[in-house]
């Protein structure tokens, strides 16, 4: 019998996209799977149907907290794999079978990611593996905004510095060893953290280019909005404090001093950038004072 996979889809006020995602999963050719929707206290509550289980949270627990609710449920059902799948994706029929096949090919493979395209431009890449850029304390997506011409298709299984939680297959034994998704971030960086935690535990994180999905892009936190800037600034520092090489960490703190100076200049002299400057400074302050997790008090 093929390994059991629980597909976890996290929803927050995005039910139309969830429905389209579920519709695409109906054509999935992998036989041994179940779908769990975890609702992060949406205004419009999704209803269970066609064997899809829905778990309702009584507040928005963020990406990590919400998915962890689904992961805990799946582990209790003796699943072999967890698949995190964004609610705003559509999938090819063979995406999951190709990911499971790759994971089963090597006992050291702990996490598997797929090739991801933009939803509106079906041949433009969103993710084709990841690299860590310690200069900016973040993971960068290979192939982002490139037209897919097969440039990332070989080999069939490629080690990746990190994987995105947009579509992430994880072996049960990995979670049992490294724990659930880290919840100190609330949004952004938790998948990068999880990938590096798996690697530190001796597992490979790999990209499978023949497994393909399409991604619409987050509606819950608009790019370059105040929450987007705040969480990226603060969480990048949390991530670097945990995983950056020893010789990078002193440079990070020097860079913070420079960033603070730049924001103060903006506050004093550039009125149209004062809001962003305040948000960046708050992210830095909250990092140092360990005000981690969700921030409800500023935007």
Look at the structure and give the mean pLDDT: 93
Number of domains: 2
Q: Which bin fits the share of residues in helices?
A: 25-40%
Strand content: 15-25%
How far apart the termini lie comes to 50 Å
Tally the beta strands.
12
Uncertain runs: none
Shape field: globular
Task: Give me some keywords for this one.
299 residues, alpha/beta, two-stranded antiparallel sheet, 22% strand
Q: What is the topological layout?
A:
Elements: E1 5-11, H1 15-25, E2 33-39, E3 53-56, H2 62-76, E4 81-86, E5 89-91, H3 95-104, E6 109-118, E7 125-127, E8 130-133, E9 138-141, E10 158-159, E11 167-171, H4 172-178, H5 190-200, E12 204-215, H6 226-243, H7 249-269, H8 274-288
Parallel strand pairs: 1-2, 1-4, 2-3, 6-12
Antiparallel strand pairs: 4-11, 5-12, 6-7, 6-11, 8-9, 10-12
Helix pairs in contact: 6-8, 7-8
């Amino acid at each position: 019998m093929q390994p059991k996979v629980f597909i976890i889809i996290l929803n927050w006020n995005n039910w139309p996209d969830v429905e389209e995602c579920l519709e695409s999963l109906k054509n999935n050719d992998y036989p041994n799977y179940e779908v769990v929707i975890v609702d992060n206290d949406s205004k419009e509550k999704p209803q269970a149907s066609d064997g899809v289980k829905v778990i309702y949270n009584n507040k928005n627990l963020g990406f990590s907290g919400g998915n962890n609710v689904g992961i805990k449920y799946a582990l209790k059902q003796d699943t072999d794999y967890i698949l995190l799948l964004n609610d705003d994706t559509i999938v090819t029929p063979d995406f999951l079978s190709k990911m499971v096949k790759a994971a089963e090919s090597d006992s050291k493979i702990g996490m598997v990611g797929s090739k991801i395209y933009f939803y509106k431009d079906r041949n433009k890449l969103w993710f084709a593996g990841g690299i860590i850029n310690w200069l900016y304390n973040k993971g960068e997506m290979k192939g982002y905004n490139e037209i897919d011409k097969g440039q990332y298709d070989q080999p069939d299984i490629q080690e990746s510095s990190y994987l995105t939680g947009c579509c992430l297959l994880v072996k049960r034994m990995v979670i049992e060893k490294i724990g659930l998704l880290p919840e100190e971030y609330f949004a952004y960086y938790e998948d990068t953290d999880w990938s590096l935690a798996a690697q530190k535990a001796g597992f490979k994180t790999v990209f499978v280019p023949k497994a393909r999905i399409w991604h619409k892009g987050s509606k819950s936190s608009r790019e370059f909005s105040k929450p987007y800037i705040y969480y990226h600034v603060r969480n990048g520092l949390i991530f670097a404090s945990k995983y950056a090489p020893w010789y990078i960490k002193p440079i990070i703190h020097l860079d913070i001093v420079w960033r603070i100076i730049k924001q103060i200049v903006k506050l004093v002299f550039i009125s149209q950038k004062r809001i962003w400057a305040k948000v960046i400074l708050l992210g830095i302050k909250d990092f140092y004072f360990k005000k981690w997790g969700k921030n409800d008090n500023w935007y």
